[in-house]
Amino acid sequence: MSVISAGTGDTKYNIYISKQLSKNLLNKYVKRNNKLLIVTDTGIPNEHIKNLKSIINSRNCHIFKLPKGEKSKSLNSYKKIIDELIKLKFDRSDSLLAFGGGVVGDITGFVASTYLRGINYIQIPTTLLAQVDSSVGGKTAINIPQGKNLVGAFNNPCCVMISTNYLKTLPEKEFNSGLGEVIKYALIGNSKLKNIIEKNPKQIKDKKEPFLKIIIEESIKTKSKIVTKDEKEAGVRAILNFGHTFGHAIEAYNNYKNISHGAAITLGMIIASKLSFYEGYIKEYQLDNVINIVDSLGLNSDHSKYNYSKLKKFMANDKKVSKGKLNFIMIDKNFNGFKTSNYDIKNVKKALN
Ligand SMILES: NC(=O)c1ccc[n+]([C@@H]2O[C@H](COP(=O)([O-])OP(=O)(O)OC[C@H]3O[C@@H](n4cnc5c(N)ncnc54)[C@H](O)[C@@H]3O)[C@@H](O)[C@H]2O)c1
Question: pLDDT per residue over 68-122, tens digit each?
Fold first, then answer.
């Protein structure tokens, strides 16, 4: 088992990564005499939920299932979970456990930040995206009709327990969505991870051990280092948004349907790499290198459907607009990410050609 820590001071927490969830470790965090509500969704295979419940020692363990999908990250589901906690008479010594992908993790973390002004929660992420990204960093949120993730809080879990076994049942589309984020860490500063991907694309695609565990571990090392330096997203954390300005615009253009978050971010990273090339930060062979990495993992690198005129409106709504000008995350010749508002708009149009 590998252990990586994130956060600072009172809200520091450990992230445990292993093939199989450890019963002993889990029961160190779940107190026998306190209540526990496992929040999960209808897409998580029942065998995983049954196995989890069977190893928990708590005398008072309950399960709350949301319908699967992004729609569950809503005010309505938030209220339903709160109603359940009130009905079960949860107090501040009781805990929540998020068991699922980013949807379950985000809403559970948000409920935990507000119920009784805050109770503990544990993250057991079951999608690759949640394991390498959303379960680490303490960002929690729900969506409202006006936009995605507009209501939320920074709230670190008390621990994150990652088991690669859960990924065996994950559909390919969801697995690929997480791979997009793994590539991101490789391109914004983790050269070891980049090397591993370049040498073992087939083993990674086939979910082979020890590669799964290694890519998750390396991704988390990069994410935890960055979010620990900048817990509230005031500076360096911005580089985690590499590919996201274009990717979010692609998601919004598609009305958040038909394309996964990771697939949109992957296209966004290709566009951002092209922009980095046109701005002179990377050489042409390095741009080819980025495209080859994406292709070697079987992800789509063809963004020709999305040109500047289609995405412009959606890019202007991006949270990264400051004083009317968009900031972009680009990469340099050493594959380190950096934020800049200093670019030629002609190159943005060229990258989106
Ligand atoms: N908090 C953050 O920092 C952060 C970062 C990135 C993304 N997010 C959020 O994460 C969400 C997306 O997360 P996601 O991609 O995990 O999607 P998701 O939570 O919707 O899960 C995808 C699908 O996979 C199913 N599933 C989960 N685990 C499974 C398993 N082991 N086997 C089979 N099926 C399984 C789920 O039921 C669901 O249908 C978005 O809401 C996004 O905003 C948050």
Answer: 999 999 999 999 999 999 999 999 999 999 999 999 999 999 999 999 999 999 9
CA neighbor of 99 nearest in space, from 145, 57, 141, 51: 51
Catalytic choice (237, 274, 303, 327): 237
- What predicted TM-score, i.e. pTM, was given to this entire model? 0.95
**Diameter of the chain measured on Cα atoms:** 63
| CA–centroid distance, residue 266 to ligand 1 (Å) | 16
Q: Choose one of 19, 71, 103 to mutate for the ligand 1 pocket test, by most ligand atoms within 8 angstroms of C-beta.
A: 103
At the top level of CATH, the class of 175-351 is mainly alpha
Residue 320 has pLDDT above 80, yes or no: no
- For 253-278, b/e burial (b = at least 16 CB within 10 A) is beeeeebbbbbbbbbbbbbbbbbbbb
Distances, alpha carbon 155 to alpha carbons 82, 133, 219, 290, in Å: 17, 15, 20, 34
Record the tokens describing residue 82, joined without a space. 């709160």
The pLDDT tens digits of the residues spanning 232-248 come to 888 899 999 999 999 99
DSSP H or E run through 162:
strand 159-163
Domain 2-169 sits in CATH 3.30.450.20: no
228 with 7: CB under 8 angstroms? Answer: yes
Q: Is the CB of 100 under 6 A from ligand 1?
A: yes
> Is residue 181 annotated as part of the catalytic site, yes or no?
yes
Average pLDDT in the chain = 95
Active-site residue 248, yes or no?
yes
291 contacts 301 by C-beta, under 8 angstroms: yes
Write out 185-214 in H/E/C secondary structure: HHHCCCHHHHHHHHHCHHHHHCCCCCHHHH
**Residue 338 β-bridge partners:** 330
Is the per-residue pLDDT at 19 higher than 70?
A: yes
pLDDT of 58 strictly over 90:
no
Domain boundaries, the chain: 2-169, 175-351
